[in-house]
């Protein structure tokens, strides 16, 4: 499975914070926001990743992540000239994902929960084997009218998907993480812009729904899904990360640690990456993880 991170947009709701820098490069407590969707893909076992952003912001991501080789990844980049909708990721990234299953994650979505990596790998295998055409991830929310909403049967089969419904059929919001089989490129190429002029990911999901090959994975108790689109939600995400890290002595979305634990790099390489950041508590943590791993 290959991965796509969509980190475009203007971040207008976060002005003036995003007047000069991409929203996905802003800090969520102790690390750039983009580390969260990146480690989500890594936990799913994905190593070939395309990052899509604006032409203006791409150099910042390239400076931060490079080609991904230091983490045992292959990261490539592509530009989205205008925010023409989430499904455009599969038009821009067609050559990257064509011929196999893929995962799309939005650059401002943060996921956390015990066993999340195991869950992701099971669902990725389900799509790769052909047991499902797509897997969406639902999260219970207080006011589902603000979101795309999925309704599922007890076995997880997706029954309906609606965009900001006045009378929601469930309280499960569709999060910014999507797994698809190899047909997604053709499906995305066929959909037409919506009334707001965008290629809607909901239309892609409906195509799988109509085929009876869409599933909804519930992320309920024990999981957190955070959106960072406003000043308040960005601060709340930082507070969530700070509290967990300080209480538990761990680092959430530490790319070096995830690369080590997934077997993408060895302990020596992980320690070297920490040493490059030794002037910070983050770098010291990375070195300590590497030392514990090989002891």
Brief characterization of the structure:
Its cofactor is Mg(2+). With 295 residues, this protein is α/β, with parallel strands linked by helices. 35% of the residues lie in helices and 23% in strands.
- How far from one another are the termini? 32 Å
Dominant shape = globular
Please give the number of β-strands.
13
Oligomer: single chain
Q: Which strand order spans the largest sheet, edge to edge or round the barrel?
A: 5-4-1-6-11-8-12
Q: Sketch the topology as an H/E string, one letter per element.
A: EEEHEHEHHEEHEEEEHHEEHHHH
Enumerate the spans where pLDDT stays under 50 for 5 or more consecutive residues. Answer: none
User: Helix share of residues?
Assistant: 25-40%
Strand content: 15-25%
Work out the radius of gyration: 19 Å
Q: What is the arithmetic mean of pLDDT?
A: 96
Strand count, sense and barrel status of the largest sheet are: 7 strands, mixed
Structural class: alpha/beta
Helical stretch tally: 11
Cofactor: Mg(2+)
Function: Catalyzes the formation of dTDP-glucose, from dTTP and glucose 1-phosphate, as well as its pyrophosphorolysis.
GO molecular function: glucose-1-phosphate thymidylyltransferase activity
InterPro entries: G1P_thy_trans_s (IPR005907), NTP_transferase_dom (IPR005835), Nucleotide-diphossugar_trans (IPR029044)
């Amino acid at each position: 499975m290959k991965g796509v991170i969509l980190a475009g947009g203007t971040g207008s709701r976060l002005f003036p914070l995003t007047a000069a820098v991409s929203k996905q490069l802003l800090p969520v407590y102790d690390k750039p926001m983009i580390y969260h969707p990146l480690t989500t893909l890594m936990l799913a076992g994905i190593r070939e990743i395309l990052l899509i952003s604006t032409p203006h912001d791409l150099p910042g991501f390239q400076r931060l992540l490079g080609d991904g080789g230091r983490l045992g990844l292959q990261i490539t980049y592509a530009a989205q000239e205008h925010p023409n909708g989430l499904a455009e990721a599969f038009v821009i990234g067609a050559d990257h994902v064509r011929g196999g299953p893929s995962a799309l994650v939005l650059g401002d979505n943060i996921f956390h929960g015990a066993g999340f990596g195991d869950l992701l790998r099971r669902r990725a295998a389900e799509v790769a084997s052909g047991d499902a055409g797509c897997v969406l991830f639902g999260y219970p929310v207080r006011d589902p009218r603000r979101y795309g909403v999925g309704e599922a049967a007890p076995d997880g089969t997706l029954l309906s998907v609606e965009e900001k419904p006045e009378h929601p059929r469930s309280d499960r919001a569709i999060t910014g993480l999507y797994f698809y089989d190899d047909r997604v490129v053709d499906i995305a190429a066929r959909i037409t812009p919506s009334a707001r002029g965008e290629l809607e990911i909901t239309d892609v999901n409906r195509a799988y729904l109509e085929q009876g090959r869409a599933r909804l994975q519930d992320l309920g108790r024990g999981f957190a899904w955070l959106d960072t689109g406003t000043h308040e939600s960005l601060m709340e995400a930082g507070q969530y990360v700070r509290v967990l890290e300080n209480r538990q002595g761990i680092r959430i979305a530490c790319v070096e640690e995830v690369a080590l634990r997934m077997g993408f790099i060895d302990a020596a390489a992980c320690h070297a990456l920490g040493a490059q950041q030794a002037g910070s508590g983050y770098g010291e943590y990375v070195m300590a993880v590497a030392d514990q791993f090989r002891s």
